């Protein structure tokens, strides 16, 4: 992911994976969720921003 490169994260930990997965999961609204649509499209403009913001928050704590 671009955010990992931009933030110069050298080691991908379970905490980073968990944070990223939560950011991905929280990208879709309840209205957008359906049986056939549980993961946001890679071209979703909100997706990269949410992942980057989540990783910025976690790297501040480290």
Count, helices: 3
Helix and strand element order: HHH
Number of strands: 0
- The domain tally reads 1
Indicate the overall shape. elongated
Low-confidence stretches: none
Q: Which percent range fits the helix content?
A: 40-55%
| Major sheet | none
Strand content: under 5%
How far apart, in Å, are the first and last alpha carbons? 19 Å
Output mean pLDDT.
Answer: 91
**Overall SS class:** mainly alpha
State Rg.
Answer: 12 Å
How would you characterize the overall build of this protein?
The protein has 62 residues and is an all-alpha fold. It has one domain (2-61). The protein contains three helices and no strands. α2 packs antiparallel against α3 (45-61). The radius of gyration is 12 Å and the shape is elongated. The mean pLDDT is 91.
Concise synopsis of the structure shown:
With 62 residues, the chain is mainly alpha-helical. The protein contains 3 helices and no strands. The protein has one domain (2-61).
List keywords for this structure.
62 residues; mainly alpha
Task: Give the SSE layout.
Elements: H1 2-6, H2 14-25, H3 45-61
